[in-house]
Known about the structure:
Elements: H1 4-19, H2 24-31, H3 35-42, H4 45-61, H5 69-86, H6 88-95, H7 108-123, H8 131-150, H9 157-169, H10 183-196, H11 203-217
Helix pairs in contact: 1-2, 1-4, 3-4, 4-6, 5-6, 5-7, 5-8, 7-8, 7-10, 8-9, 10-11
Amino acid sequence: MQNTRDRLLLAAAELLQSTGTVSTRAVCERAGVQAPTLYHHFGSKQGLIDAVANHGFTQYTAVESSGDPLGDLREGWDRHVRFGLEHPSFYALLYGRAEPGKPCAVTAPAHAALRERFSEAALKGLLKVPAEDAAKQVFAANVGVTLTLITQPDPDFALSERVREAALAGVLNSTAEGALTTRASAALTLGAMLRDDSGDLTPGENALLAELLDRLAR
């Protein structure tokens, strides 16, 4: 049997999915509770909405590493697009509240997961830009194509694949499958290894080497 908090989450999710809007009264009626109960669990209506969005978002970002960063990146992209198409109201909630200069805390786990996959790619010598830059570029493209497909009566999944491959080509070595070695990619690889294990370096030496490697990578 669902507890009260879960009933409130489910009620808000169903209202968002069916109507795209949420009111305290409608949520409480659907969940069979009074307004003070909602405030007790979530603090406010916005707190409830954030909890719903975060729950839905983390469900599809929880992807374990398979050891194949390129495969994981492609799978993550496709799952992101499918989530947006299957839950357009959720997706609009997640990406429709952008505030100037203020990163979205709810979508941060997705960006962090993407950065981790690119760090794995860097260890294999596959990147031509720093992992953080690669994550930002690909994440922006992933969100953009998902919003575009949501507005299409008949979503063109081939468009998503083309944009995905173009976005990856922009951050991966031209012979990514064979790990083309350049000064930049070598610096990125060593930087990723350094973050995993700095060996006997002192904090100061570690910081200096990281700065030098970053300059070489760029």
